[in-house]
Amino acid sequence: MLAFYPGFVRTFDDLPGRVSLLIHSWNGCNMRCFGCHNYDDLIAAKPDASRLTAEQAVERIRASAGLFDALLVSGGEFLVNRASDIVDFLRSVRGAFDGAVIVYTNGTYPGKLRMLLDRGLVDGVHIDMKLPYHLLDPGEDSDVYETIIGTVPSRRTRRDMLAAVEAVIRHNGETSQVRTVRYPQLSDEYFERIRAYVDELNAKHGSRVPYFLNPYYPPQAPRRHSQL
Ligand code: SF4
């Protein structure tokens, strides 16, 4: 069942040029990335009595809809949830709020992602490409995967992550982006390879999805948020 963390925050820097409301589903994640900011509150901790149901989250979005023009749905990993629960929630959000709806994902659920894009339930996707997956074999490069995403993907999951990045670029949403944290363990070459891969896919599909290489902030570093 979908659960949401009760702290909704307005942000001014997650989507350039827009005021966004950032909400977090509280249903865990299938990765454990180095320096994850959400690990203690949203992944290690199970939802407790303070959680919001999907209906309560939609009502809060409706009540404050004039205060932001984009909704960012983060996690954990929002797409770990059941497809039918995700669809019901996003349909209700469409009825409560007129602005852009953007989902954050680590890319491990390309089927759900394509379904949401095809049905127009989300306007954009911020997808992580944390490593140059196309160049790293889960067998030979397991240590790099383990260090950065805390797990070694199967070859199928690696294909899924690449398929999800391509789905986002093919869709070419105005608010979509591919992004990577500049993890301190990685040399610049890793990020250059990811950027080149995104450039190739944009050229292949005639798309203009930007690539962002974001600074690494240790988990205790404060971010510019205002609680709503
Ligand atoms: S995918 Fe995102 S939420 Fe999940 S562990 Fe990695 S940084 Fe944290």
Automatic annotation (TrEMBL):
Where does the record place the Radical SAM core domain? Answer: 15-228
At the top level of its lineage, which domain of life is listed? Bacteria
Keywords of the record, alphabetical order, are:
Iron, Iron-sulfur, Metal-binding, S-adenosyl-L-methionine
The record, for InterPro entries, names: Aldolase_TIM, rSAM, rSAM_sf
Asked whether the keyword Ubl conjugation is assigned, the reply is no
Q: Is Acyltransferase set as a keyword in this record?
A: no
Q: Which CDD domains does UniProt cross-reference here?
A: Radical_SAM
> What name does this protein carry?
Radical SAM protein
Source species of the chain? Cohnella cellulosilytica
